[in-house]
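Final report, section 2: Outcomes. Of the targets proposed, NnrS family protein is the one most frequently requested by collaborating groups, and we therefore present its record in full.
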Amino acid sequence: MAASIPSRDQGTPFRVPTVFTAGFRFFFLSAGLFSVLAMTVWTLWLGIQAAGGEAMAVPIAMAPQLWHAHEMVFGYAVAVMAGFFVTAVPSWTGTKETGAAFVTFSGLVWLAGRLAVWFSAVLDPILVAAVDLAFVPVLSSAVIGRLAQKSQTRNMVFLALLTALFSGNLMMHLDWIGWTGGNAEAGARLGIFTSAAMIAVIGGRVVPAFTRNALIRQGMEDDLPRSRAWLDRCGILLSLLTTLACLPFVPETALGALCVAAGIVTLMRLTGWQGPATRKEPILWILHVAFLLLGAGYLLYGLTLLAGIWQETAALHLLAVGAIGSMTLAMMTRASLGHAGRPLTVSRPIVAAYLALIVAALVRAFALPVCGYFETMLLSGSLWILAFGLYSWVYFPILTQPRQRK
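The predicted structure is given below as tokens.
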């Protein structure tokens, strides 16, 4: 139910809208809506360019492709992470759930960052940086406080990853301010690889666990997922090392070699998780597909850096659209149902959203030589908009209405 706050003048309670009562509600809904809006702006700009028209007059100071990269990583993906951490960390630590006041405040900080970046052409770049960079420290304050109350050694890795996210965003803003030269692209890449490392850690926990629970419910206890501890540790370590290797002073050959190793180990981890057994449950198989795209993305990007077998940005988008896009959509659709008290079964429009996003990733990564630049970008972008438009349409009532009583 919505939270109630007494009114000062009449003593009647003021009811906080349901969407502000839990982190997953506000941030998962905002992430879906914002991703549709941001991708629509990007595809419209590309469409105008493809038609030979003049560039849209937009109030952003940075190049449109850098705005696109920044907002999809530090706007969309970070919002999903916020919804996840604000909801999951209290459960991990057995501490009090995050209240409506923090959700509202942090949500406003996130929104202010989006507006500051959008109007960056008419605002002081230092102000834009200060407003946009504020969100991750605000989020981290809630995470650190709860982890400090309980022994959560294995979860401290998330604080390091949040620091890396902040660093990637900082690199982009320092470049836009003019204090560094050419680091915006490196900052975006650091953000993508940090997000990929989040998937390597979190996905390595939830994919086999959720699959195990589902197979047990189905009476398939003879062939449950198997996780090998040494392989999991190796996969997580390699994902963290690839994140560090994104720093500008690290040779690309080192990053490439680490990505190849991370890709191989990630795919090896996946082989023990009984993915084929989930083929009739979309809410499960999308998790396996996302982890598959993580391994494939690491591998393709590494081979591209080492041997030049593919176009670098296309390979990078197999991680960005494929792994990050699919896993964030998978986690939002599943976690929202569970925390809203609804059955863990997705509707047909959400299955269509899963498929549209997978195709969007494959088109963006592999269609360029056949379809051409603008055709590839517009098709992939339109499929992304379709996927998250369907998600926002289906989940709007789920995230804005009170939890169902069982």
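The CA atoms of residues 271 and 292 lie 10 Å apart.
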